[in-house]
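Shift notes (night). Ran MULE transposase domain-containing protein while the centrifuge was going.
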Amino acid sequence: ASSEQLDILQSCDDFLVDGTFKVVPEIFYQLYVVHAIYRGHVVPVVYSLLSSKNSDTYQRLINEIVEFAPCWFPASILLDFEKACINVYGSSFVNISVSGCYFQYIRQYV
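Came back to this:
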């Protein structure tokens, strides 16, 4: 993330996060992107190449983000229905409102 992206990250309350799998080099598992809702627009603020999608990986990612952006305290986050992500965001940010994407819910559970 650039310094401008980190400033946006720390100044926003609402975020969307998602990973994609088809565009990453084979040595990685996914490209994970954090988007901020900034002045009415969705702005990508963090790009991460992750080796897996488990709680430890997501926790390390959040720890790294907080190291570079210590004033990041998201109020709400929208994500797919991935249990590891839900648990890590919920335990890392006590007052966060975690919401799941309805489209992903239907795709995964119906």
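The chain has a mean pLDDT of 90. The chain has four helices and five strands.
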